[in-house]
């Protein structure tokens, strides 16, 4: 399942690449995921607690980042058991649904006067995962200019 979002913005391409290629900035501000650990600059692990009207489930993903001159691509491999849990955490997760398995990709590209975000995922629980991520992004897009301006000030870009 794939969904696309467009954010009208006037931003220099180098600033765009610097901000959105920083996984901490992107995932903490625009997605429901938390970065748990990092292997290196381009490989890291995510955790998200997703819920629907009838169930709740954990999503664990190994992510590889690719940066080109026009876009940033995050490739997700979603599997249960990628992240080591404490015993109390495993007891809590026993009440949740079965964690999904699948593959996904988040592509962020800089077009003329907008940023295009494409979320593509195939595997278990496609619709809830894609909808949950896109809904969180839609909420944050309302504050997009504020988030980006605060980050530009913080980094002096």
Helicity, in percent? 25-40%
CATH architecture: 2-Layer Sandwich
CATH class: Alpha Beta
Helix/strand-derived category reads: alpha+beta
Task: Tell me what you see in this structure.
This protein has 157 residues and is α+β, with helices and mostly antiparallel strands. The chain has one domain (2-155): START domain (Alpha-D-Glucose-1,6-Bisphosphate, Chain A, domain 4), CATH 3.30.530.20. The protein contains five helices and seven strands. The chain has a seven-stranded antiparallel β-sheet. Strand 6 and strand 7 form a beta hairpin. 22% of the residues are buried. Pfam families: STK_08120-like. It comes from Metallosphaera tengchongensis. This is DUF3211 domain-containing protein.
Structure at a glance:
The protein is of the alpha+beta class.
Set down the secondary structure blueprint.
Layout: E1 2-8, H1 13-20, H2 23-30, E2 34-38, E3 43-51, E4 56-67, E5 71-78, H3 87-93, E6 102-110, E7 114-123, H4 126-141, H5 144-155
Antiparallel strand pairs: 1-7, 2-3, 3-4, 4-5, 5-6, 6-7
List its salient traits.
157 residues; 5 helices; alpha+beta; Alpha-D-Glucose-1,6-Bisphosphate, Chain A, domain 4
């Amino acid at each position: 399942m794939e969904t696309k979002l467009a954010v009208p913005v006037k931003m220099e391409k180098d600033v765009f690449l610097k901000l959105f290629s920083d996984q901490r900035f992107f995932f903490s501000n625009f997605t429901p995921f938390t970065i748990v650990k990092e292997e290196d600059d381009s490989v890291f692990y995510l955790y998200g607690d997703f819920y629907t009207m009838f169930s709740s489930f954990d999503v664990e993903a190994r992510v590889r980042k690719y940066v080109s001159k026009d876009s940033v691509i995050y490739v997700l491999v979603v599997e249960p058991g990628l992240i080591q849990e404490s015993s109390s955490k495993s007891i809590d997760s026993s009440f949740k649904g079965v964690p999904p398995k699948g593959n996904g990709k988040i592509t962020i590209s800089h077009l003329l006067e907008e940023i295009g975000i494409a979320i593509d995922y195939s595997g278990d629980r496609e619709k809830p995962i894609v909808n949950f991520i896109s809904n969180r992004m839609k909420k944050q897009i309302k504050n997009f200019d504020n988030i980006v301006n605060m980050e530009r000030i913080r980094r002096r870009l």
